[in-house]
Amino acid sequence: xxxxxxxxxxxxxxxxxxxxxxxxxxxxxxxxxxxxxxxxxxxxxxxxxxxxxxxxxxxxxxxxxxxxxxxxxxxxxxxxxxxxxxxxxxxxxxxxxxxxxxxxxxxxxxxxxxxxxxxxxxxxxxxxxxxxxxxxxxxxxxxxxxxxxxxxxxxxxxxxxxxxxxxxxxxxxxxxxxxxxxxxxxxxxxxxxxxxxxxxxxxxxxxxxxxxxxxxxxxxxxxxxxxxxxxxxxxxxxxxxxxxxxxxxxxxxxxxxxxxxxxxxxxxxxxxxxxxxxxxxxxxxxxxxxxxxxxxxxxxxxxxxxxxxxxxxxxxxxxxxxxxxxxxxxxxxxxxxxxxxxxxxxxxxxxxxxxxxxxxxxxxxxxxxxxxxxxxxxxx
Amino acid sequence: xxxxxxxxxxxxxxxxxxxxxxxxxxxxxxxxxxxxxxxxxxxxxxxxxxxxxxxxxxxxxxxxxxxxxxxxxxxxxxxxxxxxxxxxxxxxxxxxxxxxxxxxxxxxxxxxxxxxxxxxxxxxxxxxxxxxxxxxxxxxxxxxxxxxxxxxxxxxxxxxxxxxxxxxxxxxxxxxxxxxxxxxxxxxxxxxxxxxxxxxxxxxxxxxxxxxxxxxxxxxxxxxxxxxxxxxxxxxxxxxxxxxxxxxxxxxxxxxxxxxxxxxxxxxxxxxxxxxxxxxxxxxxxxxxxxxxxxxxxxxxxxxxxxxxxxxxxxxxxxxxxxxxxxxxxxxxxxxxxxxxxxxxxxxxxxxxxxxxxxxxxxxxxxxxxxxxxxxxxxx
Lengths: 380, 380
Prior knowledge:
By secondary structure, chain A is an alpha/beta fold.
């Protein structure tokens, strides 16, 4: 027998499961989802008193496949495999870690591309807009199903960090530690503006057909590609783009035309094409809306974030990255200040990184050491 | 007779003129433009020794209509009317000011929408890509035609500032004072990336038809609209977007759909629609390419900007704006440092403004006072 190829993930092969929820979910929009599926993965073992569960909340384009491989031949492990696994900062020898694809997603949880049982057709534009609040409610049901009354920790970056905040507000007794990374209490006008350009790219693509492209056998590939290209610019810092690509020309000289000339163009177009070939445009729209909507101060803006976070009793670790201009350190400091106003236990780190918003996905040693140290202190 | 309505421009009515150039122009790309027109406007009077001429170089979406009105009923004057006119910082009682639409433009100078005499059809994709160098060469011919051997000053913001730099390098004896505002010696990878997303929006619009949409009686309106929406985000600062729009909702509540919800969305879509209805998409493509290409250090990058600016003998005023992240103050400081390395006379100001890149078009009192003082010192 030949020796097994060395695994690129210390978790090895993992298998997703699907949970079906037959009870209707009342959404923040007023719509009701009569029933739905959530696809999820778990890593490690739930201990006897169920005190070692950790929930990972994903960001815009993430999913339930957080760590490990789906097949031995996989070239890439789950999206946060560098952080999660046996002996890793979020150590699956100690913790029972759960990844779940959000409602509205396109990786197995019920979403716009799923069949609407009422019509026998894909939901398409009929899929209701879901919010961070709705996701947290639906994940609480998954926790119920798994018998987890309180998470040791809930961890999320970017849009995932917003879900972490929402857990601390909506289910304060169900989470002991909140790790909100590269996040913000709410988007700025500039953030919303970028999201709206991305949405308009999709919505105005002639192949979008009002969201019902499944029925037309088309796909708004051009629009989604543009949305992703734009997104990518905002995930990276000016610094890292400069050092990785600068003004380097593909062919060494200008060609005075509109084909790729600069390396940065090649990179962006490649990223756009790759994403447009593997993600559902309706899900992209819906995820950006959830980002725009989240605002714990919405109903009483005059009281500010401290009042909105008043229910939270969890301990917090808040982390930001110096060159992240999409979710800048100032935004994380707002969360920290609000928690301090409420006399909560909060640790804060601003990690020097030139990777921009994407830094939260990178294996920076300082960043990972911080999470490791924090997680090691959690009793299970 | 009813009293005349008070003019919104102190210059009153101005009339563009068109200059025809029958001699071929050799372009940097290697292409040759056999003949071309430049549309231009002038304000004030050229003095006897022709020492009071000032050239204004426009940016991406600008044109020759820099100041004054085209008709008494005009609601808006030229794009830099707040700066230029009798008694204004660039005082047309002293200076003879020239505005000219760049080659490739869509406001009267020869461009992609013009008829190619060789075919009798619009140039479309057949219009050659032009560069900052080509523009400066073509404007030098306009100066020849007007009998101006040396400009008192050449002024430009953004892409216009690049033209100012190029004048100082290519025609050092033809300009005494260079005013480079909100500019950069060359674009960064991030700048190029934003331009490429804008271009891809246009190029991938099914109505683009490879640039020959004139012949198809279509127009890539969707693509140009997206390009402009994106551009607008980068012209404004996060600060000014926050203070002007914040998270204000149009209808006071979420509608949980993809119609306009936030005021910032309404603003951006309006700007995109307005622009897409009045600008030529091929011109937009070409102008962004000229931005990407400009790099005085291109042929000898190892020698740096100081070497590239060695030919320049003009005095310089360089101005940047604190919240301009598209052409950040650091980029202006590179120009200043290179000029100082060459022991040139250079004044530099970094104006505190929350208007981002757009600040160069705004009537900030400190900014205008600086230009006024600088221009008053110029002998004519």
